[in-house]
Specification:
The chain starts with a helix and ends with a strand. It is mainly β and about 400 residues long. The chain has a single domain, classed as Pectate Lyase C-like, CATH 2.160.20.
Length: about 400
């Protein structure tokens, strides 16, 4: 069975089980008359659960009720079929479009599909307020069996999608414009494919740094991930384990300007919060292009295998240290590249920093330096830390 057939089958099985769990099978259709605020009628239908289908082509405006920090709450065992409609948050609201539950109230078997969500992030408050916390456009803080598919999310606010739970599915999602972050996922046994995130800007130095795609996943399968023009990096963080990825395409752009952060990070945790090592990550193809500093950063990780890496036109801030390298590895071991290709680099191609052990490369090509002082490889670890194969 092909990978995409497997993922598509998994989605069908999850959606099918949703309706088996909910015997009501309610089918609601809205949109006969256009109202100023569609929140009450949408929420009433969602409260009944089952299948809620919107009117194709209709734009629904929602806003947070008095005292709430979200416009719509979607309960367990509910399939919201947008059916080509758009759900838009009213301007000047520091709230979520849709939320599933609070952290201490788990939800399950929620599906949202087939339409557009607009967060109006550029029209929301421009400064982060710790008293409110984050308020992503789609917020699922404790949701198992979540299915998100065939969605376009525009002008999101404090992350387009923020989800924590197990056995989730994200398939065919476009995030076009986001203030603070693109997609943040945490949990076990996720299936993810056809994700495209672009034009993400920085909002807050701690919570919303402009990352387009952040995951902390275990036993999960990722297909194709494409991210372009964002703040901080595409990130596998804080204890990712047993994760396979078909492809990552990471492209810098005008928004990639706050200290020129790294394009892609495989970054475990080793600080005051504890130690969580990334391990067992397999990536078939990784391309990092047009980054102002590092194309690929591997930190506090082990057993990482990348079949093909292409770094192109990175480290453009001309830093005369390890952050001016295309590939930076530190505090990591058992890292393997089948093919490592770096071109149009400024200062350094591959930099091995402290506490690095057993980095192996079958085929390497480091070419076209932009400076006569460029150094292809720097090894600050033990002499035997790097094992090289052929160099065309």
């Amino acid at each position: 069975m092909k990978r995409r057939q497997f993922i598509t089958g998994a989605i069908a099985a999850i959606v099918g089980s949703l309706f088996k769990l909910n015997g009501k099978g309610i089918f609601s259709t809205f949109g006969q008359e256009l109202s100023v605020d569609d929140t009450p009628q949408l929420q009433a239908a969602l409260n009944r659960g089952g299948r809620v289908t919107l009117e194709a082509g209709r734009r629904y405006r929602v806003s947070a009720p008095v005292g709430a920090r979200y416009a719509l709450l979607i309960p367990s065992d509910t399939f919201l079929d947008l059916a080509g409609a758009t759900v838009e948050l009213a301007p000047n609201q520091r709230y979520c479009n849709l939320i599933s539950s609070s952290w201490d109230q788990p939800s399950q078997n929620i599906c949202i599909a087939n339409g557009e969500i607009i967060g109006n992030g550029t029209l929301q408050p421009s400064a982060f307020d710790n008293s409110y916390g984050i308020s992503p456009t789609l917020y699922f803080p404790n949701s198992n069996g979540l299915v998100l598919r065939d969605l376009r999310i525009r002008d999101a606010y404090m992350y387009a999608i923020y989800a924590k739970g197990n056995d989730g599915t994200l398939d065919t999602a476009l995030v076009d414009g986001a203030i603070g972050g693109g997609i943040w996922l945490w949990g076990d046994r996720w299936k993810i494919d056809r994700v495209n995130v672009r034009n993400v800007t920085y909002l807050d130095p701690v919570n919303c740094t402009g990352n387009p795609f952040i995951v902390s996943l275990r036993d999960s399968i990722l297909g194709d991930i494409r991210c372009e023009n964002y703040g901080y990096g595409v990130k596998f963080q804080d204890g990712c384990e047993n994760v396979t990825v078909n492809s990552i395409l990471a492209i810098g752009g005008p928004n990639h300007d706050r200290s020129g952060d790294f394009l892609v990070k495989i970054q475990g945790m080793n600080d005051s919060r504890g130690q969580r090592i990334n391990r067992g990550i397999r990536i078939r193809s990784l391309v990092a292009r047009n980054g102002k500093r590092v194309g690929l950063y591997i930190y506090y990780s082990t057993d990482i295998a990348i079949a093909s890496y292409l770094g192109e036109n990175n480290d453009r801030l001309s830093q005369d240290d390890m952050t001016g390298a295309d590939v930076l590895i530190t505090d990591a071991d058992h890292i393997h590249f089948n093919n490592l290709h770096i071109k149009e680099y400024n200062q350094y191609g591959l930099w091995l920093n402290d506490h690095v052990d057993q980095v192996s490369v079958d085929t390497v090509k480091i070419e076209n330096p932009r400076s006569s002082n460029a150094t292809p490889i720097v090894n600050r670890s033990s002499p035997g830390a790097l094992v090289m194969g052929t160099n065309p």
